[in-house]
């Protein structure tokens, strides 16, 4: 594995695959956000922009602005006492942020890959009365969404860092399930 300061290989097509995975993980949580804040379209715009990038559109400043706007929507939801909506908006912000994954072998980059899934899982947990079983089930679904390209890119980075509260815990769980799963290993093995 690369040390914490080295660059890794990361092609534009791989970046699009990661963004597509992040979008697929974040999109279901839009319902949580829009149920509580139906007139705020910032998270939807972030996911739509990330989806367009995953499908071949250019990575633009507008996409970066949409990511930040979704994070502002998350903060406003949190300030309004709507934590599930806040995490749903964070999932959208991380989906848009996936397009900006840096090719630096730093553990902090894992959030660009898995942050949307973890925040979506947390949004669903909170919507279900803070039920961790709901989050675990969501992560199992996210694991199934990760194709071999996403898993291969993930494995180029160091493991997810500690900290980050419940969302950090969810990121580490998903990281471990993708990185160390024998099923996932079969996906990335290539014949010699």
Structure explained in plain terms:
Helices cover 69% and strands 0% of the residues. Helix 1 runs parallel beside helix 6, helix 2 packs across helix 5 and helix 3 (42-54) runs parallel beside helix 5. The mean pLDDT is 93. It is built from 10 helices and no strands. The radius of gyration is 16 Å and the shape is globular. With 192 residues, the chain is an all-alpha fold. The two termini are 20 Å apart. It has one domain (12-183). InterPro entries: Imm5-like. GO terms for molecular function: exonuclease activity. Keywords: Exonuclease, Hydrolase, Nuclease. Residues 12-136 form the Imm-5-like domain. This is Exonuclease SbcC.
Oligomeric assembly: single chain
**What series of H and E elements makes up the topology?**
HHHHHHHHHH
Structural class: mainly alpha
- Count of discrete structural domains: 1
The major β-sheet equals: none
Note the gap between the termini.
Answer: 20 Å
Mean pLDDT: 93
Quick one: how many beta strands? 0
Portion in beta strands: under 5%
* Helix percentage range: 55-70%
List the total number of helices. 10
- Uncertain runs are none
Task: Using the CA coordinates, give the radius of gyration.
Answer: 16 Å
Large-scale geometry:
globular
How would the blueprint of this fold be written?
Blueprint: H1 12-26, H2 30-36, H3 42-54, H4 61-79, H5 83-97, H6 110-127, H7 132-145, H8 148-155, H9 165-180, H10 182-188
Helix pairs in contact: 1-3, 1-5, 1-6, 2-5, 3-4, 3-5, 4-5, 5-6, 6-7, 6-9, 7-9
Domain Imm-5-like: 12-136
Protein name: Exonuclease SbcC
GO molecular function: exonuclease activity
């Amino acid at each position: 594995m690369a040390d914490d300061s080295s660059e890794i290989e990361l092609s534009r097509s791989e970046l699009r695959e990661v963004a597509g995975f992040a979008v697929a993980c974040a999109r279901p949580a839009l319902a949580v956000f829009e149920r509580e804040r139906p007139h705020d379209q910032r998270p939807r715009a972030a996911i739509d922009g990330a989806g367009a990038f995953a499908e071949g559109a250019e990575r633009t400043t507008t996409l970066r602005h949409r990511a930040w706007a979704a994070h502002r929507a998350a903060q406003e939801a949190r300030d309004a006492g709507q934590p599930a909506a806040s995490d749903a908006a964070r999932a959208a912000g991380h989906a848009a942020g996936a397009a900006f994954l840096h090719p630096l072998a730093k553990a902090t980059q894992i959030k660009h890959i898995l942050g949307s899934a973890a925040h979506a899982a947390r949004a669903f947990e909170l919507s279900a009365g803070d039920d961790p079983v709901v989050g675990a089930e969501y992560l199992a679904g996210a694991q199934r969404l990760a194709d071999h390209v996403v898993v291969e890119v993930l494995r180029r980075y160091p493991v997810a860092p500690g900290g980050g509260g419940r969302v950090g815990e969810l990121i580490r769980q998903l990281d471990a399930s993708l990185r160390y799963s024998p099923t996932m290993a079969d996906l990335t093995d290539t014949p010699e």
